[in-house]
Amino acid sequence: MFKVNASDEIDVGATLNVGPIELEEDSGAITLVNLPVSSTPSDGDTESYGLSIDSNPVLTIYGLADGAGGTDTHRVGIGTTTPSATLHVTGNAVVTGGLTMGSATLVGNIDMQGYDITGVDKLTVSTIDPVHEINGEEYATFVSFYAGGQKMETSGTIRIGANDKRIGANHEYIIDFEKLEEGSDLWLFWETLHQDLSQLSVILTSWI
Questions:
Q1: How many other C-beta atoms lie within 10 A of the C-beta of residue 77?
Q2: Spatial contact of 65 and 47, defined as CB atoms under 8 Å apart
Q3: Given CB 3.0 to 4.6 Å as the disulfide criterion, which of 79, 115, 125, 199 pairs with 90?
Q4: Rounded CA gap, 146 and 129, in Å?
C-alpha cells in the first residue's frame, strides 16, 4: 500500500484513514494539499478536490486544466462542487464583520434584517417600489420621493370653478380623505403618511 516513488515521495495506494493532522511547529506559509496537473487532460477538464462530511460536499477547491500542463478558472465552492465564481456559496452566509466589495453585481433580494445601509456615497436605482400591506391587501406604486419606505409626495390636477365665470367669485375644492378611491395614488399617500394633517403641505400651481 505504501511505496517510495522516484521523487522520494510516499505513494499511498488505497484510502488512508487518519485522525487529526498536526502540522510541524512554526511551519510558516506552507501548502497543505497540492493537485499537480500535466498536459494530459484536455483544455477545460475539471481538476478539483474537496472536503466532505458523510459524503456531502462542504468545501471544493476547483480549477480547469488548460491542456498545456497548467490550470485556470481557480474557484472555491462552499456547498457546491461546481462553483461558477471565484467564491460560490450555495446556501446562506453570515458575515459578522465588515464586507468590502469592489464592482459588485447583486442578483436577488437583500434582507437587512432590520439593520441600516450606511456609508453610501451614491445610490443609483431604477425604481423604488416598497410594498405596503393595508387591510390585508398589498399595494405598490412607483413614486419619485420616498423616505423610510413612506410616500412623501403626490401630485394631481383639480378643477375649481370651471362653470362659474364670475369675477371675484370664491371657489373651493374639498378632498375627503375618508372617501378616496382605494388603491389610488392619493389614497396610498394618505394611508402611508399615518394620516397626520399637521404634517401635510399643499402646493398649488394655477393652470388655465
A1: 22
A2: yes
A3: 79
A4: 9
DSSP 121-162: S----S-----EEETTEEE----S-EETTEE---------ST
Long-range residue pairs from 73-81, CB within 8 A, at least 24 positions apart, any chain: 77/50, 81/48, 81/50, 81/57
Kindly list the distances between the CA atom of residue 57 and the CA atoms of 35, 45, 51, 61, in Å, as whole numbers in the listed order: 18, 20, 6, 11
Give the pLDDT of the chain (208 residues) as one tens digit per residue. 778 888 888 888 888 888 888 999 999 999 989 999 999 999 999 999 999 999 999 999 999 999 999 999 999 999 999 999 999 999 988 888 877 777 777 777 777 777 888 888 877 776 566 677 788 888 765 554 555 545 567 777 877 766 666 666 777 778 888 888 888 878 877 877 656 777 777 787 876 6
Altogether, the residues listed in the chain come to a count of 208
In the chain, DSSP assigns E strands to 2-4, 10-12, 46-53, 56-65, 71-78, 87-89, 132-134, 137-139, 146-147, 150-151
The number of angstroms, rounded, from the C-alpha of 139 to the middle of its chain's C-alpha atoms is 23
